[in-house]
From TrEMBL, chains A, B, C, D, E, F, G:
Keywords: Ribonucleoprotein. GO terms for cellular component: ribonucleoprotein complex. Residues 8-78 form the Sm domain. Belongs to the snRNP Sm proteins family. GO terms for molecular function: RNA binding. This is Putative snRNP Sm-like protein. It comes from Ignisphaera aggregans.
């Protein structure tokens, strides 16, 4: 499948730099934090990150490096 | 296996741009939202997205970038 | 392993175009619908598709694009 | 690791063509049916196939195309 | 990482040909049987194989072809 | 997707050498220890490592070599 | 990411040859035994190996060949 509007994904990421994002991971965990960097594999660095387990438990983590392979989805928090 | 009618998948995606789609993810979560973009790996951007857990719980997310590797299926909502 | 009769898989798919097929997915879900297209990765488009969960629950979905990687098996319904 | 006797796997498959085989799949499901074809990725076509769930439930499926990636093991039924 | 003594793995396999081995599979199942062949991907053929489920249940299978990708470990039974 | 600021991930890792980091693994286990080395696949060596299971149980392990493929995320402990 | 001190992983493995190591596998099983060999994929041969299930059950296995893909971590036992 050729992409029709692939630049939109870049745009979502580029516009989210410095913003708070929600990142859902495989296995049910989520993180929210300030998007500091990302690469083409969706390896992500968050600042001021907070972990959220499936049971709602939260834990402050600070800076977090996430392996892209574990990212299910990313959503800027409005 | 050579494909007989591969253009149909493209057509489904192309015709769904701007439309509301249901996206089922690995692990049981689903998202529905307006299809804003997709690429050849089925990386998807949805607008006005809403998350739906297996127990029926819903949560508004706004714009969401989904890693294609986690997509099980996509269905335009009629 | 070299294949002895690989053309049979093609034949099953080609003969199922336009027919109702059962598609079992990883994670326990199944879909049945009219096979509209497939490609070499077993990416599949079904029309008039119906989802069937492991507990027997059904849900009408209409047109569905399935990522081949999630397909466990496909069976034409006689 | 270089193989010492790789031709044995071919032989098992070639000798099973037309015979009833048991195929165990990832996730716990099994199928038994007449081996109609296979390829180098262990994509398999069975005729007169019957599905067997982990709880012992059976279901007749007829012709089934199995994606090789989901095959755990294959055993000719004596 | 470069290997220091990789020939040992070959040696374990080569010396186990014709011997009874225990094979642990992903998902919790195990098989034991006479090692008839293996290849570089750890695709394995066992003769006189017996399946052992996690609850201790056993089942005779005869000849079994195992896809290497599902092998967790192999141990010659002394 | 081209990366905008990929050097940040390097920086997080480089600045964490010799520091205590938290490493979350697939399957729910976590490790904390002094980051001694890492490579481009996120293969990691920790010193003075301690394992933490999902139920809160801890176990001292000393030096640990972690396969990068199992790393979900890494966070320097402030 | 370029590695800064990748030789450390080699060193951990090389220094562990002939020593007792703990190997954690995907799915929750662990093995401990004398490290006899390893290769670049972390395929491992242990001697005098003992299996340890998640419930604490142990079982003597002798020589064990472990597929690297299933290795989560390896730790020399001090």
């Amino acid at each position: 499948m050729s992409s029709t509007t692939p630049e939109t994904a870049h745009k979502v990421l580029a516009e989210s730099l410095g913003q708070i994002v929600l990142v859902r991971l495989r296995g049910g965990k989520s993180l929210r934090g300030r998007l500091k960097s990302y690469d083409m594999h969706l390896n992500i660095v968050l600042d001021d990150a907070e972990e959220e387990l499936e049971d709602g438990t939260r834990r402050r983590l600070g800076t977090v490096l996430i392996r892209g392979e574990n990212v299910v989805m990313l959503s800027p928090i409005q």
